[in-house]
Amino acid sequence: MVASPDVAMSVSYDPLQVALSVVIAVASSYAALDLAGRVASTRGNVRATWLACGACSMGAGIWAMHFVGMLAFHLPVPIFYYWPTTIGALLIAIFAAAAALHLVSLKRMGVRYAVISGCILGCGVAALHYLGMDAMRAAATYQLRPGVVAAAVALGVVFAIGGMWLGYYFKGEPKGTQWIRLGSALCMGAAISGMHYTGMASAVFTASPPSDLAHTVHISSLGTVGIAIVILMLLGTTIAACAVGRGFDARASRLEVSEALLEFTHVTRLTVMGELTASIAHEIRQPLAAIVTNANYSLRELSTATPNIQEVREAIREIVQDGDRMSSIISRIRKLLRKESSEQMELEINEVLQEVIDLLRNELEQSSIKLTLELGDALPRICGDRVQLQQAIMNVVLNGIEALRSIPRERRQLLIRSMRNSDLVVIEVMDTGRGIDAPTAERLFEPFFTSKPHGMGLGLSISRSIVESHGGELSYHPIPQGALFRFSLPAENESSSG
Amino acid sequence: MIFVIDDDPSVRRSIKRLLGSVGLHVEALGAPKEFLSAEHPNVPSCLILDVRLPGISGLELQRELSERNLQIPIIFITSYGDIPMSVRAMKAGAVEFLPKPFRDQELLDAVQVALQRDKIRRQQEAEITLLRERVESLTPREREILPLVVSGLLNKQIAAIIGASEGTVKVHRSQLIRKMKAHSLAELVRMTEKMGIGSALR
Q1: How many CA atoms lie within 13 A of A487 on its CB side?
Q2: Distance of CA B178 to CAs A206, A268, B137, B196, Å?
Q3: Inter-chain CB proximity B14 and A278 less than 8 Å
Q4: Is a pLDDT exceeding 60 seen at residue B28?
Q5: pTM of this structure
Q6: Residues contacting A50, CB < 8 A, separation 6+
Q7: Which residue among A61, A422, A480, B40 is the one 20 to 30 A from B22 at the CA level?
Q8: Which of A280, A285, A291, A293 is the mutation pick for testing B, counting most B CBs within 10 A?
Q9: What is the predicted pLDDT for the residue at A236?
C-alpha cells in the first residue's frame, strides 16, 4: 500500500462527509449572521456575553467544518492528528470570530470595518485550515502550491468580507430578514467550504516515512458523526437563543412602547394640568368663597332677633348655584385627568371645543385675551376620543395664549372657529401674537423641539399624533399677523349621525 | 364705606351681603377701573380687593393708588394663595391678605382694623390741614421765627439771629403762640412735629 515517494498520492473524498461539512459551514454562517444582529442590538454585559458565546460557537463551527472536511478526505494511508495543534486551530478560529463579530456590531460600522473584519475572519479561517493540516500525522507529506494557497486565502477573505457586510446590513434586525439571512448563510457556508476544499487542493501529498505519533488521535467515522452532532447542536442552540432573545426584545419593546405612550400622554396631560393648577384652584375657590361667605351670613342673620328671611333665602339659593358650579368644574377636571385607554365615540366638535374653552377661560381672562368664538352651525359629528382631542386642542390654544402674552394687552386676540369643509370638520385656532419664524415653523411638530425656555417640546408633537390617530391632520399656517393652526378631522357619515 | 372689587359676581354679592348685615355700607364692583371712576365720599373707607383681576391686577391697582396718592386701606382676598404675592402686598401696606375661602369673622375683623386705620389717618390729615391753615395765617416774620422758637432758643438769641430787638421778638412769639392756638411751647413743638415742618423751616 506504500506509494513511491515522488509520486503524488491519489486522494478521495467521502461525499457524505463532504455534505456534512457543508451543512456545518452553512449552519455556522447562519449562526454568525444571527449573532452579529444580536450583538449589535444589545449593550454592556449582555453584549459581551453574546459576543463570547457567538465567538465560541462560530469558531467551533468553522473548526468542526474543517475537521469534518478533513475526515472526508482520504489518503491511502491512515491519518492521525496531533491534538495540541488541533486545539490551537480551534482557538484561532474562536479569536478570529470574536474580532469579526466585535467589529461587525459596532455602531459606526461601515465598508472599512467590513473589510477589516472580513480580512481577520478570512485569514483566521485560512490560518485554521493550514494549522489543521499541519496537525496531520500520516505516512505522507505534502507540499503546498503557492498560487492555489493564495487563491484559497483570497476566496476566504473576499467571502468573509461579503458575509461581514451582510451581517452589518442585517444588524438592525428588520422583519422578514430570515430568508435573506438563510440565503446569505448558504453563500457564506459555500464560500467557507469552497475555501476549505481549494485549500486542500493546494496541497500535493506524497508518501513519506510514518511520522511521530505521540499526542495524536485517530478520528473514526463514528467520531465524525459525534463531532458533527455536537457542533450542530451547539449551533442550533445558538440560533435558538438568538431567536428567543430577539423575541424577548421585540415583545418588551412593543409592550414598553404602548405602555409608554399611554403613560406619556397621561403625563403630558398632567403637565398641562400642572400649568393650569393655579387656574383650577382659583376656579374652585371662587365659588367656595362665595358659598362659605353666604352660609356664614345666613347663620348670622338667622341668629338675630329679626332675621331678613328674604335675603337669607337668596343667599342659600346662591349657595346651591355655586355648589353646582363647583361640581361641574370638578367633573370637567376629572374627565381631563382620567387615565384611560382610548374611548371612541361620536362627538359634537362644538361641545368638545366649548369644554376646552371653559377650562381655559380663566387663563384667557388673566392674560386679558379677547376670545372670539365662531362655531359653525349643524356640523357633522366626528368619531374619536373626547379627552385626547381636547388635549390636542388645549395644547395648541395654550401655545397661542403663551404667544399672546408677549404682546401688548390691547392687541391680544384669539379666534377659535369650527367649520365644515366638504367631508372634513375643520377647527382653526388663530392668535395675533408675533407668529413663528420660518426655521422654528419647520420643526414645530418635532418631538422635544421647543422654543420655550422651560418647554418639553412635546405639546404640538402630541397634538399632531393625536389628530393623526384620528385620521386627521394638524397643520400650521403663517398669517400676516400671528399664527394659525388648523385641525382637519374626518366627519362621520351623515347617515350615522343622528 | 367698603369697596369690594372681585370679578366673580357670586363672591362680591356674598361679601356685600355679609358686610351689609353688620350695617356697613358696601359698594361691590367688578373691575378696578370702576373703582377709580367711583365717588370716594370723605368717610372712613376700605377696599376689599381680589388679587387677580382681568386687565389690571389687584397688586397693580394698589401701586397705582399709591402713585395717585389715593390712600385707602386694602384687604386682599385671593384664590391663588401664593406667598410671595402676599408678602409683596403686605409690604406695600395692605391691612390683611385673606386666602379664599375665608372665615366671616376674619374678614369682619380685617374690615374693622382697616376702617379704624382709615379713621385715624383721616383725623390726622384733618388736624394737619388745620395746623397748616394756622401757619398760613402767620406773618412772614412770625413764620421766620417759628422754627427758632420751637428749637428752644431764647428771645435774645433769636433777636441776634434775625437782627431785631429782644422786645420785638417777644411780641412776635406771643402772637405766634396765640395764632397757632398753642397753650404752651411744648404744644407748639408737637404741632410742628406733626406737620413735619419744624426741620423744613429751619
Answers
A1: 33
A2: 151, 79, 11, 20
A3: no
A4: yes
A5: 0.47
A6: A35, A38, A39, A42, A245
A7: B40
A8: A293
A9: 77
DSSP string, B3-62: EEE-S-HHHHHHHHHHHHHTT--EEEESSHHHHHHS---SS--EEEEESS-SSS-HHHHH
Residue for cell digits 414645530? A444
DSSP A491: B
Give the whole-angstrom CA distance, residue B157 versus residue A372: 78
CA distances from A52 to A66, A87, A129, A247, A253 (A): 21, 18, 22, 21, 25
Contact assignment for B55 to A409 by CB distance below 8 Å = yes
Interface contact A296-B103, CB threshold 8 A: yes
ipTM: 0.79
Q: Where are the beta strands (DSSP E) in chain B?
A: 2-5, 26-29, 46-50, 74-78, 96-99
Q: Do A294 and B52 touch (CB under 8 A)?
A: no
Using one digit for the tens of pLDDT, what is the confidence trace for A76-114?
Answer: 777 777 878 888 888 888 888 888 877 777 766 667 777
Q: How far is A478 from chain B (nearest CA, A)?
A: 28
List the end-to-end C-alpha distance of chain A, in Å, as a whole number: 101
Task: Collect all residues from B whose CB is shorter than 8 A from any CB in A.
Answer: 7-8, 10-11, 13-15, 17-18, 21-22, 52, 54-55, 77, 79-80, 82, 99-104, 107
| pLDDT tens digits for range A344-383 | 788 899 998 988 888 787 778 878 889 999 999 888 999 8
- Higher-confidence residue: A322 or A276? A322
Q: Tens digit of pLDDT for each residue in B4-17?
A: 999 889 999 999 99
- Of the candidates A175, A257, A197, the one whose C-alpha atom is nearest the C-alpha of residue A18 is A197
User: DSSP 3-state assignment of A251?
Assistant: helix
Q: Whole-number mean pLDDT of chain A? A: 78
Residue A182 has which C-alpha cell?
438563510
List, for residues A45-71, the tens digit of each pLDDT value. Answer: 777 777 887 788 778 888 888 878 877
Q: What's residue B13's pLDDT?
A: 94
